[in-house]
Amino acid sequence: VAKTVLVQAAGTVAEAQFLLALAAEKPFEAGVVGWVGLENADAPETIARLAADTRLVGLRPMIQDIPDTGWMLREELEPAFEAMIDHGLVFDALVKPPHLPALLELSGRYPELTMVLDHGAKPPISSGDVSAWKRGVAELARSTPMVCKLSGLVTEAGTAEPSALEECVDHLLEHFGPARLLWGSDWPVCELACSYEDWRKASDHLLRRLGASERALILSETARATYGI
Fold first, then answer.
1. pTM check: above 0.70
2. CA–CA separation, 82 vs 116, rounded Å?
């Protein structure tokens, strides 16, 4: 691993500032996806202030924890989304399957906003029924230019055993393709189910049928292109 992108874990601007300070000290950390309260009246000013540091590459509201599945479509968020476009920031969509229809509509509203579907939209692997997730993800891939993050699946499955992950990974590969998939460790959250090494080994196994150039896209080049690294 030559470089990494740090992604927010707390819903505070202070944490975003902390991550940017870490990235300033360590060239290994090539970018930061931070957090801003997008619904706040001062969100555009806060975004502009944080974006003055070029290491800020994106923002991620913690949508998975918001009960209203249509929250991202609220009118009061519009100035924040416009500010993200103005400053060239990526919108990391931390969502679950019930949020996918709203995310599809949001993408249509803001075609200039680069979006990343975090954790493959968190398929409910442990429940055994991923049919609704499959339909929602396929529609997003077909109707939007969205990039999808290949990450977070082990915590949804409760294991890094490739056989438990293969159906969902193959679905993402089929619909997004290597040029629109980027690998993420989801460390340290992955440790709820497995070690970083276990997930990386599982990833190597799940991507084994791809050529070297396709694996390079998923493991490196798609992230570089998406986040401008």
1. yes
2. 17
